[in-house]
From TrEMBL:
Species assigned in the record: Actinotalea ferrariae CF5-4
Residue span, HTH lacI-type domain: 5-61
CDD domains: HTH_LacI (cd01392), PBP1_sucrose_transcription_regulator (cd06288)
UniProt keyword list: DNA-binding, Repressor, Transcription, Transcription regulation
Protein name: LacI family transcriptional regulator
One Pfam assignment: Peripla_BP_3
Length: 352
């Protein structure tokens, strides 16, 4: 059996006392030990392969340097897994190990996951969701210092960060108005109950129309299933409107719906962006940048939200108060090639 390298071994190689090694390797040397001696100790530890006994350290400090992240489905969702990557990055930077539990949104499994992580004596816990949610029912064993990621409790009381869905919609629709469009359709998501983001993005859409003096046309707000087929069907409904009511631009709830809108445009003999401008939402990998032309869209700040949550949890960022409210992370517009001024002529209709 290989014998574990200990502090005394480091002390012997460095030519100092074990107490000096302990102070240096636990970052408690400060001004008490010359920098040259500290460097000699660290080099000796590296040379002989010394690794701290984390169990002994946790018993002494009452900290395990581990954190837990309980999620509903983000670990199995390609475009939201960036939140997990960010959480891992911050944990690694600060010397912590991240435990991730994916619960599938099962309340009983969530409760058991929280209990299991607390049994492991994690130093903190992040509660994360795949999409922006307002939560009425929380696990009753959730620790009071937990941080919420892409979700917020309906009753407040916890630090929480969510995307600024309303602000992102304002940026998207303003891009179309600035290009000269007046007939702008909103291809919304068809789900019951509607997700929080649906209402917020519609508010942003209506705000821009109101500021631009554009009277909203109820016929230009349609809903579709959240995939390419649903987007194609919903976009076709507004593209089939009479010429005087037909939109020259589409704001789509997400990039998958926008992908279907591209197909609907082709089916109607329309070229993007010459005849029809399209803006999506999410900046989803393998969709937005790969469409032809590339899709102008709004990026969800998954990575930034993940960093924020773990930095708050670990004290690297100031913990917001109840008065501060929920933190809204900006959703930036990503410009590509799917927006242009409205056509000056009546575009061709359906291909024969």
């Amino acid at each position: 059996m290989t014998q574990r390298v200990g502090i005394k071994d480091v002390a012997r190689v460095a030519g100092v006392s074990a107490a000096t090694v302990s102070l240096v390797l636990n970052d408690r040397a400060a001004d008490r030990i010359p920098p040259s001696t500290q460097e000699r100790v660290r080099l000796a530890a590296q040379e002989i392969g010394y690794a701290p006994n984390r169990l002994a350290r946790s018993l002494r400090t009452r900290r395990t340097h581990t954190i837990g992240l309980v999620s509903d489905r983000i670990a199995t969702t390609p475009y939201a897994v960036r939140m997990v990557e960010a959480a891992q990055d911050v944990a690694r930077e600060r010397g912590y190990l991240l435990f991730l539990v994916n619960t599938g949104g099962d309340p009983a499994l969530e409760r058991d996951a929280v209990a299991a992580l607390l049994d492991q004596q994690v130093d903190g816990l992040v509660y994360a969701c795949m999409w922006h949610r307002v939560l009425d029912d929380l696990p009753e064993n959730l620790p009071a210092d937990a941080v919420f990621l892409d979700a917020r409790p309906a009753t407040g009381g916890f630090p929480a960060v969510v995307p600024d869905d309303r602000g992102g919609a304002v940026a998207a629709v303003q891009e179309l108005v600035d290009a000269g469009h007046r007939r702008i359709a909103f291809i919304d998501i068809d789900e019951e109950p509607p997700p929080v983001a649906s209402g917020l993005r519609r508010e942003g859409y209506l705000e821009v129309l109101r500021r631009a003096g554009i009277e909203p046309d109820p016929a230009l707000h349609v809903r579709g299933v959240s995939d390419a087929a649903g987007g194609m069907a919903a976009a076709s409904r507004v593209l089939d409107l009479p010429a005087e009511r037909r939109p020259t631009a589409l704001f789509c709830f997400n990039d998958r719906i926008a992908m279907g809108a591209y197909a609907a445009a082709r089916h109607h003999g329309l070229e993007i962006p010459t005849d029809l401008s399209v803006v999506g939402y999410d900046d989803q990998q393998l969709i937005a940048a790969e469409l032809d032309p590339g899709l102008t869209t709004v990026r969800l700040p998954h990575y930034e939200m993940g960093r924020w949550a773990v930095e708050v949890l670990l004290g690297a960022r100031e913990r917001p108060t109840d008065e501060d409210g929920v933190v809204l992370m900006p959703c930036p517009l990503v410009r590509r090639d799917s927006v242009a001024p409205p056509p000056t002529r009546e575009p061709g209709r359906r291909r024969g």
